[in-house]
Amino acid sequence: MIEMKVAGIALDAGTRSPIVLLKDMRDRRALPIFIGQDQARAIVNALERQTPPRPLTHDLMVNLLEAWDMTLERTIIHSLQDNTFYAILVVRQGETKKEIDARPSDAIAIALRTGTPIWVMEEVIADASIPVDQDADEAERQAFRDFISGLRPEDFSQRGHRSPNGD
């Protein structure tokens, strides 16, 4: 899993639909997730630390967690199926841990309110992320190519190991 942070909310140029943009901690990959207007507003409110006069849905969830002495340990965006992201909230109460299915936008809004880390599975990053720092990506690829080009067959043999044939 890769820890991500909310970089902000953007609007899709074509559809004007809101997108929450997650970035990895090294600012190398970005994961855009289309969300609804209400969820975008909830995420922006959390990013700006705005407190409504009465609890809204995500605030209510945080209040319930606190009232029942529960801790949100992490939010995990675990899969992408048919262009839909799936997430879970990992909640602990004493020794009991539960995983609760959630929309990523709701999970992110709650995580921001509780200061909980947001994690994304590597497969999701591989399938849906976009590069942010292409120069660093190219430098990594070049370093790997240089490493591969310097390998020799004897680099793959295990020293001191004999096969069953005595080789």
UniProtKB/TrEMBL annotation:
Which PROSITE patterns would you find in this protein's record? Answer: BFN (PS51658)
InterPro entries cross-referenced by the UniProt entry:
BFN_sf (IPR036104), Bi_nuclease_dom (IPR003729)
Domain annotation BFN: ranges? 1-132
The GO terms describing molecular function are: nuclease activity
A Pfam family found in this protein is BFN_dom
Query: What superkingdom does the record give?
Result: Bacteria
Alphabetized PANTHER family for the sequence: VON HIPPEL-LINDAU DISEASE TUMOR SUPPRESSOR, VON HIPPEL-LINDAU PROTEIN
Name of this protein = BFN domain-containing protein
